[in-house]
Specification:
Helix 5 packs across helix 18, helix 11 runs parallel beside helix 14 and helix 15 crosses helix 18. The N and C termini lie far apart (86 Å). The chain folds into 3 domains: 162 residues, no CATH class; 159 residues, Lysozyme, CATH 1.10.530.10; 75 residues, no CATH class. By secondary structure, it is mostly helical. The longest helix has 28 residues. The protein contains 21 helices and 10 strands. It is globular and about 85 Å long. Strand 4 and strand 5 form a beta hairpin.
Length: 468
């Protein structure tokens, strides 16, 4: 039976290779043809495949070993990487700084240093295949590789004779320095846990690099907000973890903007309406994030815990504190002593991702922009961008027509405003140039963090409107 299965797979692979090497047929490949094994096709695409052992060496011997000690003293001591988190931070650091979207890493979600394979899809993306076919082929190759590893682990559980896949798994486990249980039943449990932990992660280096370009125009202003509110500058890593600082980000859960506020949380701090959603505005949502993080810090008394709470809420940390009977709680003992169904892989990795991004941002000169990037927007300069309140009703389309003579950035700075709409008095607007006092009220530094952005319109009390 197994021999017939192998022969069938080989037959389908040959068909795939023929199709890929006949240019006239490239665009005609149907999606369902990808249901066959594509391990040989991978070899034809990837002249220099990255093996799990190479990736393992990079995790162990790469520059992270130096960077993690903060040699240039760029990072606050409170964000030092503990020994228990080093492996997971190391993994995410490599995902952010070494591997772009062309790479998929197959690893264990509980042992971050256990990497079974990494697949390079660079040649696939360079091919003339259409986008849908590329995506389908990539997904199928990853699924097939995970199936192979799953099959190998299943055989290890049942004690079947070792083959190449099983040996690859064993080599990966040994390379990760994970101990094998000596007895049969504990060893079977060990392999079953590895089965449940199989996971694929796409590289993000190029996505993070685009985020740096998006961030540049806001860097001075957000840094100014952090200074005003005494928030550690390392907190800027959060919107990179949340969205890679993608200003147009919208998640499946409908979390919006660079800080990825869901509707209920956003509504607590921000004006969130169908035609006026300030979660989309980088600066307004940054002020809301500062308020939220400051609240977390006030409740928990610790910035690392405040970061964890940004993802999972303060409730779980407070419950863990009670469980530990008032013992000083840290990120380490929180996750080691507290379990909850709502704290899954994403929540348990959030702080490691945050730390990895903190170090990636601090030492970005070593990992990003081998070529000098273009400035994000025309006429961009590093200067403070002010927030204003509209004193009168605002025809944003006419406003843009006038303002484009003086600034090229007004449209991009205000994605929360619809062009074809008259916006009412009290609307918040961002501007990199000074607006007239008659029609716009500039929000002073002293008031930026005194009120939630949803209450900024209260500042217009007693303020008149003039259209002259």
């Amino acid at each position: 039976m197994q021999k017939k299965y192998i022969m069938l797979r080989m037959f389908m692979i040959k068909k795939l290779i023929i199709l890929f090497y006949i240019p006239s047929l490239l665009a005609q490949i149907p999606n369902n043809i990808l249901h066959s094994d594509v391990s040989l096709l991978k070899k034809s695409f990837y002249s220099k495949p990255i093996t799990f052992l190479e990736f393992q060496k990079q995790l162990t011997h790469g520059r992270f070993g130096v960077i993690s000690h903060d040699p240039e003293n760029l990072i606050n001591d409170m964000f030092e990487i503990s020994s228990s988190l080093k492996s997971s931070v190391n993994f995410w650091f490599n995902i952010y700084t070494r591997y772009d979207e062309n790479f998929v890493v197959i690893h264990d979600k509980n042992h971050h240093n256990l990497v079974y394979d990494s697949i390079d899809f660079s040649e696939l993306y360079k091919s003339s295949l259409n986008t849908v076919t590329k995506a389908n082929l990539k997904n199928q190759i990853v699924k097939e590789r995970i199936k192979e590893i799953h099959f190998g682990l299943t055989n290890l559980i049942s004690g079947k004779k070792s083959d190449k896949i099983q040996q690859t798994i064993i080599d990966a486990i040994r390379s990760a320095k994970i101990r094998f249980p000596s007895k049969k039943i504990p060893r079977q449990k060990f392999y079953r846990k590895l089965l449940r932990g199989l996971r694929a992660q796409t590289g993000l280096r190029n996505v993070v690099e685009k985020g740096f370009i998006n961030y540049e125009i806001y860097r001075e202003t957000i840094g100014h907000y952090f200074d005003l509110s005494s928030v550690p500058p390392e907190i800027i890593a959060i919107p990179f973890v949340e969205s890679s600082f993608n200003t147009k980000a919208v998640s499946r859960a409908n979390a919006v903007g660079v800080w990825q506020f869901i509707y209920t949380t956003g509504k607590f701090f921000l004006p969130v309406e169908k035609k006026y959603d300030t979660r989309r505005n980088v600066l307004i949502s940054s002020l809301a994030a500062i308020h939220l993080l400051k609240q977390n810090y006030k409740i928990l008394g610790d910035w690392p815990l405040a970061v964890v709470a940004h993802n999972s809420g303060t409730k779980h940390i407070i419950l863990a504190k009670k469980k530990l009977k008032n013992k000083k709680i840290t990120v380490d003992n929180f996750f080691s002593n507290y379990q909850h169904p709502n704290l899954g892989f994403a929540s348990r990795n959030y702080y490691s991702e945050f730390l990895a991004m903190v170090y990636a941002i601090a030492y970005k000169k070593y990992f990003f922009f081998k070529e000098k990037p273009d400035k994000p927007w025309k006429g961009h300069t590093n200067k403070i961008i002010n927030l204003y309140l509209v004193r009168c009703n605002l025809d944003f389309k006419k406003f843009l027509k006038t303002m484009n003579k003086f600034s090229n950035n007004i449209r991009q700075l205000n994605p929360h405003l619809l062009s074809k709409r008259i916006h009412p008095r009290g609307t918040i607007i961002s501007s990199d140039i000074t607006l007239t006092k008659k029609q716009f009220y500039r929000i002073q530094n002293s008031k930026l963090l005194r009120l939630y952005p949803k209450n900024f319109k209260k500042l217009l009390k007693g303020q008149s409107c003039s259209t002259r």
